[in-house]
Every structure is written in C-alpha cells, then in structure tokens.
Amino acid sequence: MRTYTRLCLTLLMTLLSPALQAQCQIEGTAALYQLESRIETYSLANGLTVHLLPLEDKHTLTIASQFNVGARNEAKGQSGYAHLFEHMLFKGSEQAPGDTYAQQLSALGARFNASTHFDYTNYFVTLPSQALSLGLFLEADRFIRPQLTATTVKNQQETVLQEMAQTIDNQPYVRSTMEFLLAQVKDTPYGHGIIGTHEDITQASPESLTAFHRAYYRPDAMQLSLVGKLSPEVKTLIEQHFAKWTAPNQPIIEFNQLKITPQPVMVQVTDERGPWPGLLLAWHTVGKNHPDAAAIRLLEADLFQNTQSALAKISQHDPAQMLSYSLPFELENHGITNLILVPRAKISLNDLTEMILALVKQAQQTRMSDAALCQLKQTWLNQHLAELDSTQSLATLLSATSKQDHAHPLTAQWERINAVTADDFQRVAKHYFTPNMVRVDLLPPWYIRLGKTLLEWLPAGVSDDLEDAAL
C-alpha cells in the first residue's frame, strides 16, 4: 500500500510539475521524481534510518553511512576527535582486526573512503553486488565494535599530524587564514578546525576515543543507504547486522542557528612562503535548512560559480584575475559565501574588491528576468542530476537527508530551488551581501609585493609581458 501511494503521488507531481513550470520549461524533473519513487525509507526499532534504492542495471552497489557527529560535537580539549576517530574505523574491529577491513575489500576491487565535516561524518564502500552480506557485516562490526588499541591510536595520530602538516601547515596562507576565519565564529560549535590542534590530537587515548564513540556513534544518529543491484535478502541482512545495536538513553544533542551580527572585517595575512598576493572575501549567510538557503545558493552560482556567472562574463576578455574560486560553507546552522581571487599583475587587491562589490550591487539593484532565473534553475538541476549518476553519489546523498526532506530526499531541495522568485533573489542579495563582510588580503614577502606594486603602475602591455615572464 505504501509503495502504491508513493507511486501515485510521484505520478501526480510529475504531471503537475510541467504545468507549474510552464513559463520556465525546466527539463529533467520527471527523471528526478521517477528516481525518487523507487526509494524505500524505513527505520529499525533502534532508530537507525535506512534508504534503499534498487538499480537493476548496475553490477555493483554502494553502502553509505552518515553519522550526526562532526567537529561541532567536540568538547574543549578534544578538537579533531571526530576526524581522528574516522581514521580509527579503518584500523580494526572486534571481528575484523587490524587491516582486515581494507584487505578483504581491496581483494574484491572495492572502493571505500570517508570524510569528516563540521556537522557530520560519512563513510562509503562500493563493491560487487554479490558481496552485500560481507559489506554489511564489515560496516556493522566497525561502527558498533571498533577496536581501539594504544598502537593503532598512536599510528593514526601520526597519520593525522602528517595530514595537518601537508594540507595546512606547509601550504602558504592556510594556517593563519583558517585561524582568523574560525575566530569570526569563536565561542560557537564551529569555532575550531575539523582537523583539530596538535596538542589535542597527541593527547587522545583509546579511553577518550572510546568514550567519544559511545556518546556519538549510535543507531538513532545514523542513516544507512544502499544503492545499486540489491539482493532480495537486503532487509533481512540489515536487520541481522544492525538491529541489536542499542541506542543510548541520553537524547541526541541539538544545535541552534548561529546568531552572528555581521560586521566589516579586514585583515592582512603575510606569509613569507606566499608566491603571489591573493584576496578572500566572505559573507555570513544562513544554514542549509533556512528558508533563504535556496535563494542564496542560486545567487552564489549566478555571481561567482557558473560558466555564465556575472564574474565569468566580465572575465571573458582581459580578466582582472588569474584565478577565482568559490566553495561556500553550507553548514546546518550557519552559512558562509566565500570567494578567493588571485589578481593579474596590473590589478591591485582593492581593484578586485571594487569589481566584486560592483557585481553584488548590480544583483541588488537589477531585478533578474524570468528567463534568466529559469536558466539559472535549469543549470542547478542539471548539476544536481549529474551528481546522481553513480551509486556512490546517490547513496551518499541519501544518507545526508535532512529531517525536513525525509519524505522526499531527492526532490525536496529542487522544490525549494524552483520556488525561488526574482524578488527572493534580489531580497537575499540586499540582506546578506552587504558591506559587512570579511576581507582577507593574502600577502607574500615584501619584495614580491614591491614588484607587484611596480607592475600595477606600468602600462598594461608591459606589465602583461613581465607577468608572463615571472609567472
């Protein structure tokens, strides 16, 4: 009955959607609704949420898991624990000790990995469909019964510290810029880095990590997704491996939306290893479940991200920047739009800032046409559909389903995007993209800065030739 009702509702939405979108002529929505109609979502008695999406044309399947634990859950003195524990889950469990997990999956040609974020930690393994039972056994054993020995903890502490050195400490500008940005949200759950501090990582012990596991790795804080060629016994196997996992008595910690009053902030970060100046601009926005989140996502794409963005259009001929990069932080309880720019030799950081603020001002003052907004939505949907091409991306997305999207894990976000109006677009541009932004000037050694300043004063042709020779 539930499957029949879901199918009827999906068919109705598929029929109504084109009528509601007649002015936009959005293509691809039917495929999204049809794919979602094949998803079955249910919960075990212990609170674990399961998503099943059978795809008979696949020869593999992906098992993806997401836990509602990340850097924001870490207590003082335990920064980096979520990330360190993620490493530990690849290094032995009660019935698969040591490197058994990696050895058995590698022998099957499986792909597996994990990542830690501020709000969550996720895991995935893509393996042959015939290995479903083994995959579920290994996942359940390491999540429920990890083996945390002094030797493995020490080894993974060293691995994490090497990662910290390679990705943060040995990269120009990264450490000092990261610490400055985290200071903007100090005294909040997001006020420290995901990778943690050297001191906290080195002081972690099997006992403290075991306590972290007991507190946060719990079935009612987990979503398990299986996508691909699924065996008829899949539900029985999930029940067999996960149903006996008991949820703790204490409730799951809830976090509120951050209350931050944006202020204009400007700082210079100097790094003697810096090869060239750079510019970071950032605006405080909202968490991903906020009513304004969809309009902000479209605005970010229109300003900085798409190949037809405002920044891309003015950069087609004689661009002011050699490089631009925007990867917004879309957290559950907060959001940050950011843009990193590397200037051409003849362009100053002030010039770049004024150029970006002019683009923002145009979005605030000029109402977007219906045709342009429709195209922006179509581009968003195309990118969304492209992300659903593989079992891995589909399973990972399903395991990240928010509470508000529980009934429609694939289409709910699209519905919010499609509901954005030109008035919404202009309103969020005015409300969030104000002069109360963060500006970080990334500065190299004095002699590079001096040379760069001289190039800014030279005629364009001369500075371009010198720029090519220098860079």
Automatic annotation (TrEMBL):
Source organism of the structure: Shewanella oneidensis (strain ATCC 700550 / JCM 31522 / CIP 106686 / LMG 19005 / NCIMB 14063 / MR-1)
Extent of the signal sequence: 1-22
Similarity annotation: Belongs to the peptidase M16 family.
Superkingdom of this protein's organism: Bacteria
GO MF annotation terms: metal ion binding
All copies of domain Peptidase M16 N-terminal, residue ranges: 57-197
Protein name in the entry: Predicted non-catalytic member of peptidase subfamily M16B
Location of the Peptidase M16 C-terminal domain: 205-377
UniProt xrefs under Gene3D superfamilies: Metalloenzyme, LuxS/M16 peptidase-like
UniProt keywords, alphabetically: Signal
InterPro entries: Metalloenz_LuxS/M16, MPP/UQCRC_Complex, Pept_M16_N, Peptidase_M16_C
Repeat among keywords: no
Keyword Signal assigned: yes
